[in-house]
């Protein structure tokens, strides 16, 4: 199933100079969505994962689907002010701005093996922040899975970890 053909390029969105990869058409196609999620999850079968941590917002869509595909739990890493209770927080820069991510401090049992899931690896700031957040919760970082890697932006270099960062599609 060639799901990559359902990802379109939008020039100058959300800011001039950004070449935005829009995978909404892929999500809208049941077969393509299923194939993409299966491809993201496949390398992680048997990896002893306890949970997938998805990054708001597009990482929720793929992260929850990957978690179901693998039969594991899902933990939301959210933009500020959305999660009740005690939270951990990290700040980071992304391709077109700055943001913060939070997780509930009691989201994971100590030592849980966690896979971070997001849609796009661009400059790498978001994934690096998510990794810091997951480790700060006392979990073990098993790795990260993204649907798309924008190689020209060099984000992989910011993943300074032993655990694998796997991209299903690379541009
Ligand atoms: O590698 P980076 O340069 O950090 O960029 C990648 C991030 O950028 C987008 O997030 P955005 O904040 O636009 O969020 P959204 O999911 O809410 O659309 C995308 O969903 C990734 O999380
Ligand atoms: N160029 C891009 N396309 C889609 N999502 C992104 N997130 C960060 N950069 C992006």
Describe this entry's structure for a reader.
By secondary structure, this protein is of the alpha/beta class. The protein has one domain (49-170): 3-Layer(aba) Sandwich (Rossmann fold), CATH 3.40.50.2020. Helix content is 24%, strand content 35%. The strands form three sheets. Strands 4-3-7-8-9 form a five-stranded parallel sheet, sandwiched between helices. It has a two-stranded antiparallel sheet with strand order 1-2. A hairpin with a 7-residue loop joins strand 1 (8-11) and strand 2. The radius of gyration is 15 Å and the shape is globular. The model has no long low-confidence stretch (mean pLDDT 96). Catalyzes a salvage reaction resulting in the formation of AMP, that is energically less costly than de novo synthesis. Its EC number is 2.4.2.7. Keywords: Cytoplasm, Glycosyltransferase, Purine salvage, Transferase.
């Amino acid at each position: 199933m060639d799901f990559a053909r359902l990802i379109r390029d939008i020039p100058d969105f959300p800011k001039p100079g950004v070449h935005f990869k829009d995978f909404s058409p892929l999500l809208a196609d049941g077969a393509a969505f299923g194939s993409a999620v299966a491809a993201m999850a496949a390398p992680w079968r048997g990896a002893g994962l306890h949970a997938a941590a998805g990054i708001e917002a597009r990482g929720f869509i793929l992260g929850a689907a990957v978690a179901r595909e693998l039969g594991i739990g899902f933990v939301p890493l959210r933009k500020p002010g959305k999660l009740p209770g005690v939270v951990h927080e990290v700040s980071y820069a992304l391709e077109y701005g700055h943001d913060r991510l939070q997780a509930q401090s009691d989201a994971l049992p100590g030592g849980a093996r966690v896979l971070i899931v997001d849609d796009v690896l661009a400059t790498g700031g978001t994934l690096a922040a998510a990794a810091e957040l997951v480790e700060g919760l006392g979990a073990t970082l098993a790795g990260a899975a993204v649907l798309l890697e924008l190689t020209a932006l060099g984000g992989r270099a910011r993943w300074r970890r032993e655990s694998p960062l796997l991209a299903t599609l690379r541009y």
